[in-house]
Design brief:
With 210 residues, the protein is mainly α. The protein is 76% helix and 0% strand. The protein contains twelve helices and no strands. The longest helix has 29 residues. The protein starts with a helix and ends with a helix.
Length: 210
């Protein structure tokens, strides 16, 4: 199926269940861009309540996909994960040893908080669950940070789609999302800086009290 036809299929069949399924796929090791799922679904939301419901559903889907990566990495271990990444099937999923290693290095550098921050960074967001599983990160903490990161990302995409419904016809939406993808990245970067700054402030404030 051509990519344009697949995008149109998504647009024609989006509901809570398909959004959850596609977002689970997007957050697993199977490559699938959330940008063609959440904004089109938000475009069709009738009100703010529907928009909030969409963000929750998309975030649940993202958690499901992330937990798949986490569980596989947790139980099968590093050798099997790297072997899969270097296999033909892994390459079909756009994986390779370098991408997995980069995700591991990012996790090692930033610690558990990288599970949150990584969800907002393109090329890292889908893979950050793998090093979390390999490091046997506490499951509760993993779910918390993944939910926060995925929730923010989905809120940005959903808000963009909801806003575009008021100014662009539906057949122009995907082109506009691609056009403003750079702005999306800047927004995510600002959010990351804000969160890291806040956490650093809390850390030093608590240290000062101690």
């Amino acid at each position: 199926m051509e990519s344009v036809e697949f995008i149109q299929w998504c647009l024609d069949h989006l509901n809570n269940w398909t959004v959850m399924l596609l977002m689970a796929i997007e957050s697993s090791f199977i490559p699938f861009p959330s940008e063609i799922v959440v904004p089109p679904a938000a475009y069709r939301c009738q009100d703010i309540a529907g928009l909030i419901e969409l963000i929750v559903v998309a975030t649940i889907g993202a958690n499901i996909g992330s937990l798949i990566n986490y569980a596989l990495s947790y139980f099968v271990g590093r050798p099997v994960i790297y072997k899969f990444a270097n296999s033909r099937l892994g390459h079909m999923c756009l994986l390779d040893e370098e991408k997995v290693k980069n995700a591991e290095d990012y996790f090692a550098k930033h610690g558990a908080i990288s599970t949150f921050i990584g969800r907002l960074i393109p090329a890292v967001r889908q893979l950050i669950s793998i090093p979390a599983g390999l490091a046997k990160m506490h499951l509760g903490k993993f779910i918390l940070f993944t939910t926060l990161g995925a929730g923010i990302w989905n809120a940005i995409l959903a808000s963009a789609g909801y806003y575009m419904a008021s100014i662009y016809p539906e057949d122009q939406m995907m082109a506009k999302i691609e056009e403003y993808s750079h702005e999306f990245k800047i927004i995510c970067l600002v959010l990351i800086i804000f969160v890291v700054g806040f956490l650093a402030y809390k850390f030093f404030a608590n240290k000062k009290k101690a």
